[in-house]
Design a protein that fits this description.
Blueprint lengths: L13 H8 L18 E6 L6 H13 L7 E5 L6 H17 L5 E6 L7 H10 L6 E7 L3 H4 L14 E3 L5 H6 L7 H14 L3 H4 L5 H14 L4 H14 L6 H8 L3 H13 L3 E4 L1 E2 L5 E2 L5 E4 L2 H11 L5 H17 L3 E4 L3 E6 L2 E5 L12 E4 L4 H7 L3
Parallel strand pairs: 1-4, 1-5, 2-3, 3-4, 12-13
Antiparallel strand pairs: 6-9, 7-8, 10-11, 11-12
Helix pairs in contact: 3-4, 9-13, 10-11, 10-13, 11-12
């Protein structure tokens, strides 16, 4: 416990020291959305290496400026064997907290989803009111959605929230390089973003594509799913992209059941790797039974999946996916239309067709055509 909470003995956190040595640094905005009043049970979810732990360590440094060091408890659960170990660790901390006269405390449990039956220890301590004066924040893989354990805490989360941590979007990425907007600079930064995506660890050359794929495969094995089937489904999706597709068409290509495809796509959606773009008619209705577009949520992720499945990802696919993902994060929904002509993105009052080259047909009034050179400026203007 002392090794993971070095501030108790007046020492600096090693992760923060490593962060300060990085050439390129970023203060995550999402930490400001975590409720800090007791009682709160928060979940911070996202792919591993997306910056969850670093964000929490930055938050801890801010808390240390205004609170007793012993009121802050951080623990990485991957070294534990089961929920009984977790219960023992938390009981030890809560007893120490009482001995030291700490009233309110901030508890951060990292990699919680790597621990079997972790929820049993947390639910037990919530039910016996041991966390009444605490803010408890659990960090883990987004695969937690698939095990439905969050639902077991219905009515037991106080003021808690679920925070989803995604790789940086382009405006956030641009802000790492320049404070003000310059068109020429944005094009250079955009080309770099196409390579590294929104991963700070990739930008600082700490991890590469094989590391990301290894983590994805580890999560799949944790969910008792076949990495071979997962890879084959990803390959088929990338081969069919960016056209709309159905679970049935993917299943037919692979000779597996439609339900199997649906199950794996749902896993990748809950891991924030893939998104589905439903069809919207010109009548404004959403037709969920029509074929959907399936996109990859980050350009670096797309390249990693391409390497894993031995598929070359075309640049024009990445352009379309980046605009769709950007609009999804802003509007929380995005759709497409396809008939005599295609509209890649419908979100809010925007209708956008993304074209790497010149459009070969005329589009109705109100449809914005984005060429390769237009995308960086568009993404910057649509920030927030």
């Amino acid at each position: 416990m002392i090794e993971q909470n070095s501030w108790w003995i007046g020492e600096r956190d090693k992760d923060i020291e490593e962060f300060e040595r990085l050439k390129i640094r970023y203060d995550p905005k999402w930490i400001k959305n975590i409720p800090m009043k007791p009682f709160s049970l928060n979940f911070v979810l996202g792919l591993r290496r997306v910056g969850k732990t670093l964000g929490i360590k930055i938050l801890i440094q801010e808390l240390l400026k205004k609170t007793n060091p012993y009121s802050i408890f951080y623990f990485n659960c991957e070294i534990l064997e089961g929920y009984k170990d977790l219960l023992e660790v938390l009981t030890d901390y809560l007893e120490m907290k009482t001995r030291k006269g700490i009233k309110n405390s901030f508890i951060f449990l990292d990699e919680i989803t790597l621990l079997d039956d972790w929820w049993r220890a947390i639910k037990y301590l919530v039910d016996i009111h041991k966390f009444g004066d605490c803010v408890v924040t659990l960090l883990g893989s987004s695969s937690i959605y698939l095990t439905q354990h969050i639902e077991t805490f219905g009515g037991r989360r106080g003021m808690g929230k679920t925070i989803k941590v995604m790789p940086l979007d382009f405006p956030e990425y641009y802000s790492l390089h320049y404070r003000d907007y310059f068109k020429e600079a944005s094009s250079r930064v955009f080309n770099k973003y196409m390579e590294t995506g929104g991963y700070l660890a990739v930008l600082n050359r700490i991890i590469d594509e094989t590391d990301i794929i290894s983590l994805i495969k580890a999560d799949l094995k944790k969910l008792e799913r076949s990495t071979d089937i997962a890879r084959d489904i990803i390959r088929t999706i990338l081969e069919k992209a960016p056209s709309p597709m159905s679970y049935h068409s993917i299943a037919s290509n692979l000779g597996i059941s439609t339900n199997t495809v649906k199950d794996y796509v749902e896993i990748f959606k809950n891991m924030f790797i893939l998104r589905e773009i439903p069809y919207m008619g010109m009548d404004g209705k959403i037709y969920m039974r029509k074929e959907k577009k399936i996109i990859v949520s980050d350009p670096f992720l797309a390249r990693a999946l391409g390497i894993w499945s031995r598929i070359d990802i075309r640049k024009d696919f990445l352009y379309e996916w980046m605009v769709q993902e950007h609009l999804y994060r802003r509007f929380d929904e995005v759709y497409y239309y396809r008939n005599r002509y295609e509209i890649d993105c419908i979100a809010g009052n925007l209708k956008i067709e993304v074209k790497a080259g010149k459009p070969h047909r005329r589009y109705p009034r109100g449809v914005m055509i984005l060429g390769e050179d237009d995308i960086p400026q568009f993404l910057m203007k649509q920030e927030g």
